[in-house]
UniProtKB/TrEMBL annotation:
Organism encoding this protein: Priapulus caudatus (Priapulid worm)
UniProt-annotated catalytic positions: 216
Cross-referenced InterPro entries: Astacin-like_dom (IPR034035), EGF (IPR000742), MetalloPept_cat_dom_sf (IPR024079), Peptidase_M12A (IPR001506), Peptidase_Metallo (IPR006026)
Cofactor requirement: Zn(2+)
EC number, as in UniProt: 3.4.24.-
The protein, known as: Metalloendopeptidase
Keyword Disulfide bond carried by entry: no
CDD domains named in the record: ZnMc_astacin_like
Ligand binding (Zn(2+)): 215, 219, 225
Residues in the signal sequence: 1-25
Keywords: Hydrolase, Metal-binding, Metalloprotease, Protease, Signal, Zinc
Length: 377
């Protein structure tokens, strides 16, 4: 049974677990040891009904749980939380870090990286990544969502499209691709990490918000939580003693897609500072080294500049290969894959090359060097 009820302002895990008692928030089913050929089209005649497949059976789920138990025992021992290394103490409810549906292979990757402290890349992002030469197909589980809910899901999809070169395509009632995203109304908010055949995103009615859906889509694209980055300890302290017993495995660092983008406390993929605390929401589990950023942590309402940059480096490297800018992009900006003739600027900067300060007028941002023609940003 879950005794911990995290409740982030935005995101998934907090709400994910709200109404779940012991059961995972996704349907069990077999682990796909071999991932399907990425993004491959299997012939127009091979239709697949848009219904949720069973992906994990109980045995596989137990094996993943045992791996989490091993991680938990090591972490607890390392931080002096328990004298016993009894892996049975772990409270693994089927989702890692509150909303990640991982397969056995991913769980093994984590344990291996943790045990060996290898710096080399263990997780091959290529396996998780989608082929975006064509839009990523998606569909809604039949009769799961009303039009209002679909509208919010589409907003989140559109948000990713506006910020990156990634495109999605509503397949209607059937899909004829091997790899596609299925939105369904499960018991909580969760997503698989990366492309995985029928990549399932569960959205309970309590998860239908722009932030949560955009966050879950991020996972489906292969992104993990920001605080799982291997450099997170340079920016925050994990208060291990404040974490609920049996839940420390959720605070493991592991290999994530970072693309050398700076750690970002304002990432849409970041936990709140109080998640998994013994007395949520009064107790911190993540304490920012920079006190000012404590309130920023986990409160994102949309993709941050660095979220989009990470995704664009991962997926959109070739988008502007035929367009060369006259000058380099400045202030950490980069060639905008949705507008190859300009740079994509962080907040506060504007102009074609993000070399000028932006200012706001009536809620709209203008670049300082655009004042004469008031170019909208
Ligand atoms: Zn998440």
């Amino acid at each position: 049974m879950l005794s911990h009820v995290p409740s982030l302002r935005y995101g998934c895990l907090w709400i994910t677990l709200l109404f779940i008692s012991g059961a995972s928030c996704y349907p069990p089913g077999p682990i796909q040891a071999r991932l399907a050929t990425r993004g491959s089209r299997v012939g127009a005649l091979q239709f697949r009904q848009g219904i949720v497949k069973e992906k994990y059976d109980n045995q596989e789920k137990r094996r993943i749980s045992n791996i989490m138990g091993e991680i938990e025992a090591i972490l607890d021992d390392k931080h002096g939380l328990r004298s016993s290394n009894d892996s049975n103490d772990v409270e693994f409810d089927g989702v890692l870090e509150g909303d990640l549906v991982i397969n056995e292979r991913q769980a093994k990757w984590m344990l291996q990286a943790f045990n060996t402290r290898q710096k080399r890349k263990l997780i091959d992002n290529e396996e998780l990544r989608w082929n975006i030469s064509t839009p990523i197909p998606y569909l809604f589980n039949p009769e799961d969502f009303n039009e209002n809910e679909k509208g919010i899901i589409r907003w989140a999809i559109n948000h990713w499209e506006q910020e990156t070169c990634i495109r999605f395509k509503d397949m209607g009632p059937v899909v004829y691709y091997t790899d596609y995203i299925l939105f369904y109304k499960g018991k909580g908010c969760s997503s698989e990490v990366g492309r995985n055949g029928q990549t399932q995103i569960s959205l309970n009615v309590i998860c239908i918000s722009k932030q949560i859906v955009a966050h879950e889509i991020g996972h489906s694209l292969g992104f993990w939580h920001e605080q799982a980055r291997q450099d997170r300890d340079d920016y925050l302290d994990v208060l291990w003693e404040n974490i609920q017993p049996g839940k420390t495995y959720n605070f493991l660092t592991h290999q994530t897609i970072t693309n050398d983008v700076p750690y970002d406390m304002s990432s849409l993929m970041h936990y709140l500072g109080t998640d998994f605390s013994k007395t949520y929401p009064d107790m911190l589990t993540l304490k920012s080294r920079d006190g000012f950023l404590q309130q920023v942590m986990g409160g994102a309402e949309k993709l941050s500049f660095y979220d989009a940059k990470t995704a664009n480096i991962e997926y959109c490297k070739d988008s502007c290969r035929n367009t060369k800018l006259r000058r380099p992009c400045e202030h950490d900006s980069y060639q905008d894959p949705n507008d190859c003739y300009s740079c994509k600027c962080p907040e506060g900067f504007g102009g074609t090359y993000c070399n000028t300060a932006a200012f706001s007028v009536g809620g709209a941002d203008f670049a300082a060097d655009d004042r004469h023609h008031m170019q909208w940003r």
